[in-house]
Specification:
By secondary structure, this protein is an alpha+beta fold. The protein has helices at 2-6, 35-48, and strands at residues 17-24, 31-33, 49-64, 67-80, 83-98, 101-111. Strands 2-1-6-5-4-3 form a 6-stranded mixed sheet, with helices on one face.
Length: 112
């Protein structure tokens, strides 16, 4: 999924995100709901940013029936409006098994 937005293949995100997906910003105060709004959030970020490096590692998957949680650490370097950024965090994805396969229904990032 990360390759989709990094490579600007925004249409491919629908293969991973559920129609009712909820993206929750770190701290929980901002929420984006629905596939179209979620894809647009990736598109908007990449329209103003240049990602210079992205690594993900330390994957942990916990599955219980038709639900799963995927967690992993990430590090990203990017330029946004002339300002350089270097951040690390932990991604948390909640997936549900649907007729179309496994889809992300909830996502957040935890700064580290």
């Amino acid at each position: 999924m990360d390759r989709c937005w990094i490579e600007r293949r925004f249409g491919d995100l629908s293969q991973y995100l559920d129609a009712d997906v909820v993206l929750v910003a770190p701290g929980g105060k901002q929420r984006i709901e629905g596939l179209d709004a979620s894809v647009e959030s990736y598109r908007e970020f990449m329209s103003r940013s240049e990602v210079n490096g992205f690594d993900s590692y330390g994957y942990v998957v916990t599955q219980r029936g038709a639900a799963a949680v995927v967690e992993y650490d990430w590090r990203m370097n990017w330029n946004d409006g002339g300002a350089d950024h270097d951040a690390t965090g932990r991604e948390v994805l909640v997936l549900a098994q649907t007729d179309a396969g496994w889809r992300v229904v909830w996502r957040t990032q935890i700064p580290t």
